[in-house]
Amino acid sequence: MKVHVKLFASTADLVGEREVVLDLPDGATMADLRAVMVARYPRLQGVMPTVACAVNEEYETADTPLQEGDEIALIPPVSGGNGAGGGPFTGQNE
Amino acid sequence: MFAVTTDPLDPNALVEAVRSDEDGAVCLFYGVVRNNNLGRRVLYLEYDAYVPMAVKKMREIAEEVKQRFPITAMGALHRIGRLEIGETSLLVAVASPHRAEAFAACHYAVDRIKEIVPVWKKEVFEGGEEWIEGHIPTPQERQTAEPSPSSASGRSA
Fold first, then answer.
1. How far is A66 from chain B (nearest CA, A)?
2. Dihedral angle sign, alpha carbons of residues A29, A35, A39, A40
3. Cβ A81–B114 below 8 Å, yes or no?
4. Given an 8 Å threshold on Cβ–Cβ distance, is A78 in contact with B114?
5. Which of A6, A33, A52, B98 has fewest C-beta within 10 Å?
6. What is the 3-state secondary structure (H, E, C) of B35-48?
7. What is the pTM of this model?
8. What's the gap between Cα B72 and its chain centre?
């Protein structure tokens, strides 16, 4: 099955592409996809442990099964906003 | 109003989009590009984003904020591409009947945006450039409060 893998920020720089297409065996999971990406693009090895994955625009886990035509995204640690920092206010409500 | 765009952000349009006649307060947050970080002189920033997912996550955060705070409406705009010092990268506006909830909800919303919305910035400073690797969302943080039916992935692990 073919899946599309979108790359951003540091992962796009390391691979040199914004999107690649992988042909994976049926039943492949996100963990399999990560292994295939590192084998094909060894420069990803160092960053892969901190990279989250999304399947069809939703965060997913290692055992998520993939399907033909899925849109995968490798998501390095996010850093939007202005970077002004400040305490994690969100934690106070937990 | 939710958007991720290369165009300059318009705070007045965002305020008008969230404000209604029941509201006594609108809290508007500006995230602005500053000229220094980690002791380095910053020249400009380059933002990258997974645009459709970023917009979707901002909408989900607004639903989560509405469940936690008695607010009327929320909107968020993120700018991407090259931003110069002093330009606005993020606008978040929250409208509510009273100011205390507007302040608290806006603070919470900005923190959540920085936790889970897939946007990245590259800092170009004197002598180099670097992607600023920020927050790694935990599985718990990735969950927004109550995904609306339209945003559910429909996929279970």
1. 10
2. positive
3. yes
4. yes
5. B98
6. CEECCEEEEEEEEE
7. 0.88
8. 18
- Which pLDDT tens digit goes with each residue over B18-75? 999 999 999 999 999 999 998 899 999 999 999 999 999 999 999 999 999 999 999 9
- Nearest partner of B23 among B78, B92, B89, B71, judged by Cα: B71
Residue B15: C-alpha distances to residues B38, B75, B113, B117, B128 (Å): 33, 8, 18, 21, 37
Chain B neighbors of A83, CB-CB under 8 A = 31, 34, 37, 121, 132, 134
User: Which of B28, B31, B32 has the alpha carbon at shortest distance from B99?
Assistant: B28
Is some CB atom of chain A closer than 8 A to the CB atom of B81?
Answer: no
Q: How many CB atoms lie within 10 A of CB A58?
A: 20
Kind plus residue range of the DSSP H or E element containing B128: strand B128-132
CA distance B20 to B35: 36
Taking an 8 Å cut-off on Cβ atoms, the answer to whether B117 and A80 are in contact is: yes
Digit-coded pLDDT (tens) for A46-87:
999 999 999 999 998 888 889 999 999 999 998 876 554 444
